[in-house]
Each structure stands twice: as structure tokens, then as C-alpha cells.
Sequence to fold (572 residues):
Amino acid sequence: MPVEALRYTLTFGLGGMSLVLLLLLMGTGLLMIFVYEPSPERAYASILVMQQEMLFGGLIRGVHYWSANLLIAVALLHMLRVFLTGAFHGLRRSNWLIGLGLLFLILVAAFTGYLLPWDQTSYWAITICTEMLGYVPGIGTAIQRVLLGGAEIGPATVINFYAAHTSIMPILLVVLMTYHFWRVRIAGGVVVPPGPGDHPEADAEYVPVDPHLLLREYVVMLVVIASVLVIAILFGAPLGEPANAGVSPNPAKAPWYFLGFQELLLHFHPLFAVFIVPLLIAVAVISVPFLKYDSEQSGTWFLSAAGRRIAIVAATTALLATPLWILADEFVVGPGGWLPNSSPLISNGLLPFMALLAGIVAFYAVLRKKFAASMNEAVQALFVLFVVSFAVLTATGVWFRGSGMALVWPWQI
Amino acid sequence: MKKDRRKFLSRILQALGGLAVLEATWVAATFLGSRRGKAPSDDGANLRIAGPVERFEPGSVTAFRDGEFYLARLQDGGFLALHRKCTHLGCTVPWIADEQRFACPCHASAFDIHGDVLSSPAPRPLDLFSVQIENGIVKVDTTKSIRRGRFEPLQATRV
Fold:
């Protein structure tokens, strides 16, 4: 393999980390299957037994919990790395899609696992998320009913989520992940920056995978496992009061990886927040490798110095514009929406949505004209804009939303 | 000739394979669909007896935990059974008597005693269950909740 591909700052070892975390999840999950009882009556009690009476019970649950959360973060960072090093052209196209599939499976797996402890947090988070599905026009309610196994969360829901979490998702993940690795091989390993000559392949210096790559991956594995163990021992896995359908906690929040959408729900009509916007995001992310680019350059972070500058402009724009939007919506526009007398679908949906689209189009035009950005650089900047905005929305949901989802400082929650 | 036959046979095999997948899916769906859920129940089982009419003061709201509803008695004496589920994302809304409003803890939606939306994001008023009054006893049928656009006096049941 090329020496260049070993450089840690090219990939940060994020793919390898994901694999290690997934293996940790499967190991600890397998152990917990022997104790957990999937029914509303027994679920919480069986977790308590695991936590309080079984040797290493708290540790195993903690490792599972933190590996899951880290896996989502690491997988997202991995996706960001792949995008920013341009590793989605040519032979890598299909692997971008497989990666998205894996991300989807990881999110579903995490989400289905979230319900299983059957405490207040999990019960209400799943209530909120499945009710979000109900706003998808046409099929939303039907999907909701299939997932829940009825009209509301009950015994059927626990069984459904348990089956999905402990067998369907792991099997699909392993199959798709194997395919993901194989496609990396097909594409000739990870991306490397173009060499000085016309034939980078021939110019590159090669070393054997064993021991050079294996040793590095082994170190990454040890560091990941050690970190997860330390975090799990220090913080453990949370377990709140047992689920109570009669009392919603205040505030009631979705799992952190869906809090960006919950934040959107505070600013947009549900139809836009949980259907139109996510649909557009999905279409945009899927179409990334299929757009018409000026070049198929890959292997360099941010493409070029110009690309880096434009990406920083995009990130700064998002860092300023998103909080401004949130604050303006909270304090200037108020609860009635933009036109308090029209229907909420327009005042809280169409109008702000159009304003948002106009802003993005204007930003794109400025990039192309004023910064003379190439197609690659412009798409990259839009992607950065979107990622940073969504990160800000998520951070707002996690740290700045207190009682009644009012805006507060993190230390007031 | 031989090629055609081979193509024909492989087509048939493909079709049979597709059929087998469809059948298996159908069997699986039927199997899972026939699981026993919360029984939708025969009539009567979901009819909750709330109590005699005089027990409920006009302008008061009484919670019925097992039935998942609030019985509201309006100022004019009419009864409304309001589903306790917020119409935004399904949180349980508590009745705040001091402020005379249902306040959702999840996204700050609020509803008045009629279930009408006082502040968004809730898109519609609280759902209703049908109320019957027989011989001065208030009964609430919790089989099916009723969606509505906004409160109208006809929705309330009067003595």
C-alpha cells in the first residue's frame, strides 16, 4: 500500500474506530441479551438487576451506552472526512451510498435501543420521535403503527424494538459493513493525494500492509477501547425513573442525534420540519457523488487553499446565521409565525422555508460569482454550511433548551 | 432454438423465485399482524363511568388517569372529555388550574379548557372522546379519539 495512505491526518483512523466500536457494541450487547426481558413490566426491573446485582453489570451497560453514542459521532465524522477529502468520485461512488446506508442502520439501531431501558427518558423520547413520523403525509401514520405494533407504545413496541435492535440491525450492519470494506479494496484502498508526476500510482512509495497498517489500526483499537472503558467507568449509563405514561418529563427531548430535528420543529410547521427538510437533506446527500464536477480531485483536505478559505467562510456564515435565526424566531417573530393571521402551514412553514431556500441560493450565487468557486468548492462549501448549521441546531437542542423547551443557558438546565 | 428454451426456463425460475419471496413476505406479515395487541375490545369495556353530574363543578377539569382523558365541565354546564395527549408530539399535558390552561411540557403548546390551542406549535385542539350522560351519570367512551378543527358548542354534551 502507498505510504501516503498511512498518514494519520489523512483519515484520522475514523473508519477503523467505527469498526472497533461496533465490535464493542456486539460483545456487550450479546451479554445483555441473557439478562434483559423485553416487556413493559419486566424491562426496567431487569435493567435494575443488571445494574445493581450483577458483577460488572454497570460496566457492560456503560460500555454499550458510550460505544453507541461514540459510534454515531465517529461515523458522522468519518462521513465528513470522506467528503472533505473528495473520496466519493468514480469507483468510490457506490461506497458513498453504502456508507449512507450504514449510517442509517446505525441510527435505527441506536434509536431502537433507546426505548429498551423503559425509563422516563426513553419512553418519552420514543413517543416524540414516533409522533414525528405521524406528520409524514400519506404513509406516516401507517409506518408509525407498524413500528409501535399498535396506536401507542406498549408490549408490542418493546418486542418490535428488541427484535430490530438485537437481530435485524446487527445482521444488516455486518453484511453491509463487509461490503463497505470490500468496496474500499476495489477502489484501491483509501484516497491519497495526487503525486507530483502524471502517474501518481507509479511515483508513490509502497510498503507492506503487515505490519505498517495493521500496527497503526491496532494502536487505534487499543486507544478506543481504553477511552470507552474510562468514560464508561467514570459516567456509566444513565437510568432514570421507570416509564410513566401519565407524566411527561419537562423538558422531554429526543435522543441527541435527533435533537437537530426537534429544534427544527420549534421553528417550522411539522410538515416541513420532519418531512420536507429531511427529505431534501437525504436527496442532497445521496446526490453528492452524482453531481457534475469540474474535476474528480481527491485525497487533499478541502481540495486547495482556496477551497479551505471558502469552507471557512461557509462555516462562519452558518455559525452566525443559525443562532441569529433561532434568536430572531424566538424573540422577534414570536409564536404566531411570520403572518399570524394566515394558516400555520404558510406562516410557520412555507414562508420561513422559502426564506431559507432563498438564503442558500443567494449564498451559492455569491460563492460562484464573488469567490469564483469551482463546482467542487461550491458544493463543498454548501455541505459545510449545512453540517455546521445542523451541528448548531443540535447543540442548541442539547445545551440551550430547558423547561418547556425555552431558551436557557446550559448551566440553568 | 436451444437458447430460447434456456432463456424461457430461466425466466420461469426467476418468476417462481419472485413469487416465493412475495409469499414468504405475505406469510411473515400475516403472522406478525395477527399478534395480540391491546384488545380493541367489545362494547362496554372501554366505557368509563366518570361519576354523577353534580360531582363536577362548572369550570372545573378532572383527570382520569386510567382512561387517559380529562373531563372538563364548561361554564355553561356542558361536558367535554379531552384526550390527554398533546396533538403536537404526543406528550401528556397536565392541567394547570391556576392558569386555567393545559400546558405541554415538551414544546410549550398550551390549550384552554375547551382544548383549543392557546399557543402553538400544536396544530389542532386536543382530541375528544365521546361523552354520554345517562340518568345523571357521566360516561366516557375511550374506544376512539375524535379529531376536530376547533371547539364548537355542539361538541359538548349537556344534561
Q: What stands out?
A: Residues 1-35 of chain B form one domain. The helical segments of chain B are 2-33. Chain B has two domains: 1-35, 47-155. The first strand of chain B starts at residue 47 and ends at 52.
